[in-house]
Request: fold
Amino acid sequence: MSTARHDWTKQEILDIYNRPLMELLYDAATIHRLHHDPNTVQVSTLLSIKTGGCPEDCGYCPQAARYHTDIEGNDLMTVSHVKAQALRAKASGSSRVCMGAAWRNVKDGEEFDQVLEMVRTINKLDMEVCCTLGMLTENQAKRLAEAGLYAYNHNLDTSEDYYKDVISTRAFKDRLDTIDNVRKSNVTVCSGGIIGMGEKEEDRAGMLVALSTLDPQPESVPINALVAVTGTPMEDIKPVSIWEMIRMVATTRIVMPKTQVRLSAGRTEMSREGQAMCFFAGANSIFAGDKLLTTPNPDVNEDMEMFKLLGLSPQKPFVKEAQPKTVEADESQYKALGEKPKWSRPGHTIDRNEQAKQQAKLTK
Reply:
């Protein structure tokens, strides 16, 4: 397959997912080698620039204010602190810094202006910059692009059908609208999801239908395994098996051949052998560092040792797309509009989310 298809059906993707494993791995590895260097892996560092206090009710997330978890919140980091962390990440082999803020959506004002300055600062370090800040408007996306943003992450999380069983405070369409707003700028799209939240295989296929039918397809697709955190509605869900992760990575590679497939959350539960099979199946990006926002992640030295054993090298920055130019704030073409978009608030409730919310009240 030399070109990406945008007309995949759920049944076609299910048939791929359920192929005999050796056949699935062979097909995925073959496609991977057509479009990517199989011996390089893009390394990103994920930095939580504002932790906790999120008003959303995502059933998997320890940063939701309504649940009682051990996450310690913090206000927005300073630009100098972020620069220091970026330099540390660069020295350890990362080519990208991904900054995450526990916001429902971006709001114009001092904090967003501070994030824009963070983007400018990291881009000037010759590193790719990614942000995940919640929903955003077209003008906000263009302001980020102007500052030098390389990628914007906005995960679909799961299929549209299962989405209503995970989140009730925003709609699936809001996710797609945000991705569409990013596409109206020069910023690349990073969007994937989580497996192991109680969904069916059909939902995993449905998520890949939603991602693969986007035109263009996302430049980056994170595949996360649920990390069940005490206090969240999904605290009692058992981890998915490594075989499910391998199948999901391989299927994603076949359906989206040119996309960088990110082996993301859940790697602490995977052996090196399991991760090696994921790389063979088409994963070519990881997050390094001891945390993914708030959940555990392998130490960067462990990852570099694994790379050495497997003969892998960290990918250099700006291999897939050219480095954006940074426009300084006083030269910006796009200004804050003070927008107040009406993002959705669906009216339904999710029983396990409500139970976790009530339990949090009792605990407090």
Notes: The CA atoms of residues 119 and 255 lie 32 Å apart. The first strand starts at residue 40 and ends at 50.
